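WARN retry 2 of 3 for item q-0093 after timeout on previous attempt; input resubmitted unchanged.
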Amino acid sequence: MAYQDLREWMKFLDEQGDLKRIQAEVDWDEEIGAITREISSRYGPALLFENIKDHRHTTCSRLFTNGTGSKKRVCWILGLPEETHYRDIVVAFKDRFSHPVPPKKVDWGPVKENIIKGKDIDLYQFPVPKWNPLDGGRYIMTSASVVTMDPETGIVNAGTYRGMISTKNTIGVLLATTQGWGKHFVKYRREGRVMPVAVVLGSDPTLFIVASSPVSYPEYEMAGSLRQAPVELVKCETNDLWVPAGAEIVLEGWVSPDPKTFEMEGPFSEYPGYYGGKRTPKHTVRVECISHRNNPIFTGCLTGSSPGRTNEVTSWSPASFSAVAWHQLELSAVPNVLGVWRGMWPEVLRVQIRKAYRGHAQQVANALWGASIGNYAAKHLIVVDEDIDIFDGEAIEWALAYRVNAAMGDISFFPGTPGSMLDPSVPIEERNSVKYGHGKWTRVLIDATINWELEPQEQYGGERYPPVGTAISPKMEETLKRRWKEYGF
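OK item q-0093 returned
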């Protein structure tokens, strides 16, 4: 089902009794973040803060968050039954990610109701929270979609990247050259030019989902595919980028490669559940124009997750990442992939295959580690046979215990690869994104499939492994079924 914009999505949630309006005064300094953390960790309702300290009379006075923070809401976005299992949600994402829907350009949209330029620009007019206690400042870019264009091909990217308010018209950002806008930035930097950007704040939920997932096609096309209707776009005021016509707020500006323009940024509570990126000079978005709807609604979200503490992204990112990984394996012609599951954190990825030859698991690893999704995912890759349910932790543990023999090459290491600059297990000097463009990983493949170098055994009926000793014979299954009530059960 297509929700045209954020307001239509909020209206639907309100009708379902799944939107909580908070009218008590709350402080943007930690209090909004603390409330959101408690509610999101319980997979509670979407939240609309309507009375924020210091923002009763500013340009923007309302903040919306946790809009995608439950499996039920993810199913509503995709038009699936509420009880759909994540196994089938992954398949739905994968199928739609395979069928792009081009956007539609229009002459005007509600985001053009107000245009602000020059000295009137003031980012502090928006109720941007300090989300977490040790954050370096007020993070305006948490669920934003940052739009850039490849200067050579004209292909547009929309990604979710963090950004902290530095001054009334500048935002310090964490820019990795392995990400979508980072690849564009490298080309602008080579030409000695600044890179135009547009920061979209508040759109229908599909754009947030795809902008936060490493999809294989342009994000506007992927959002159209998820919503099964084209995204309507309008042209920016100060550059050639196009943004959603129904967006709440759009910040137009540019990023310079000149270190003299860098401003202090960090740290921030990042997706691994730890604070990431120490306070250092980083690339900066200099805002030249703000367009917004009448009475705009600011949007943002928490990012970090740890055991028992989640955020709204964890309701759908495991499924969307898994779908992208599965699609990548198909594009790489890896056969017999039966399922992919990421779980809470992208560093651990599980893949289920119907093994067809020796080295099949290694082919899976090569395809994923060589793709762009590997920049943040599959540091530890576990590949299992078709009889192991990748959604069952007990089954995975069984496979790790009894199908992995390191002495036979079931564990492989691949050092010196690009990896997350936010992984605290990596020495901090190796995570300098300004110096190196990204982080550094040694990746691990755990081939938990039955090793085909084991000889078939006559005592195992010609199989490599003994029969499963916990199975009940078909005859006894029938007997138990027939006599179960006789036993008193």
